Amino acid sequence: MAVSGDEGRIHIVGAGLAGLSAAVRLAAQGRAVTLYEAAAQAGGRCRSFHDARLDCLIDNGNHLMMTANTAVLDYLDLLQAGDALTGPAQAAFPFLDLESGQRWTLKPSAGRIPWWVLSRKHRVPGTRITSYLKGLRLAFAGADARIGDCLDTNDPLWRRFWEPLIVAVLNTPAEEGSARLLWQVLRLTFARGEAACRPLVARHGLGPALVDPALAILADRGAEVRFNQRLRRIDFTGERAVQLDFAGQAVALGSADQVILALPPQAAEGLLPGLDAPRESHAIVNAHIRLPQAPDWPFERDKVERGQIGGGQEVPFMGLLGGTADWLFLRGSVVSLTVSAATALAQRPNDEIAAALWSDTARALGLDPSLNPPIRVINEKRATFAQTPAALRRRPAPRSAWRNLFLAGDWTATGLPATIESAVRSGEAAAKALTLP
Ligand SMILES: Cc1cc2nc3c(=O)[nH]c(=O)nc-3n(C[C@H](O)[C@H](O)[C@H](O)COP(=O)(O)OP(=O)(O)OC[C@H]3O[C@@H](n4cnc5c(N)ncnc54)[C@H](O)[C@@H]3O)c2cc1C
What share of the chain is helix, strand, coil (3-state, %, to 5)? Predict the structure, then answer.
């Protein structure tokens, strides 16, 4: 494709999903794009790599998306990778309480009215309808309200529904999270009915689904992608950025050139004078365990999976309570566990984390605890920013104080939690802002 040089080059720094989303959109419009990335690979906090210990491709962490994530689905369409995600044909979230052994499956209702909360059979065990009604308090939460101010943390619904949901969505200790942000998530998912709540995961991993097709499209459209390029400094003159300094290698910006910084908040704050980004972050810990063979799945797969894409749920998962892990996913013989808001756990040595998560796995899947399978622990210490009311006030818009410099990243003001959907939307918003006068 012919690339127009008259409009200036667009320099995108950071090849996570925010940077990739901006780059593919702008390259599709025929703009000249250069994408710079500090690491040797793209994907940032959402990446796959070959792990020598397990001898297979693994993701840095389990990433769950939903059918409500329309920006992700549009991005995949743009990449012609519409079948890269997989999930059940109907929304279903199986849970297992490791302490009591109790199991249940949460199935949102088809329409906008959550009929499931009216039926004891469909409600979370041990919960009453009044507990769910109290959730409506979130709708009236002010900008400063924490979730703990709105919901009853002693109610059984807290431990069995609210806490796992909030920690998964906001990666923040549940009481501290922003009530308003949680309400926004509920409006976009449960309040729209089952079809918006279907879980989606990358069929063959995050890289093959969300990153590799973007790099292929960028190559096809003549965009430059430069790895191992860490931006150290930006020089400004008046209202414009005039030079990018990549560890001694200077890139002078032409008068029509524009820049998108698609970096994590800490990196952006270090480069942009006066930027007041969200500072506190929380860890997510993942462990991948390679079993000698694929284990039996303890939930009734045939019921949950009837009519699913590809004839069956390729990557079944369950929520866990009463142990260390929050979620357990299964890909063939590889079990992957996630612990969110894991800042305390992340301080512990990896072998202790591995032992705790193996214990959960053996209990959840009914395996011999003395098996000694290879385990890889991945500790993402700054997985997302802490999504508290105070931090949300610090999310910046895509336009910066400099006329040719724009911001993207899951932490910018997308109105969504720091997720893939937010990152993709932020890239889209920066690409749009840059083309407006
Ligand atoms: C373990 C884990 C589990 C998660 N689970 C989920 C989930 O289930 N569902 C979901 O939707 N989201 C999940 N997320 C969040 C999701 O991964 C992020 O929201 C998203 O990937 C952020 O993308 P980004 O482009 O904004 O930032 P990043 O991915 O951080 O991209 C920024 C890029 O900038 C590069 N960079 C940094 N500094 C410089 C510099 N100075 N110069 C050049 N390049 C630089 C980095 O190397 C990186 O590649 C999870 C995150 C983690 C870590």
Answer: 35, 25, 40
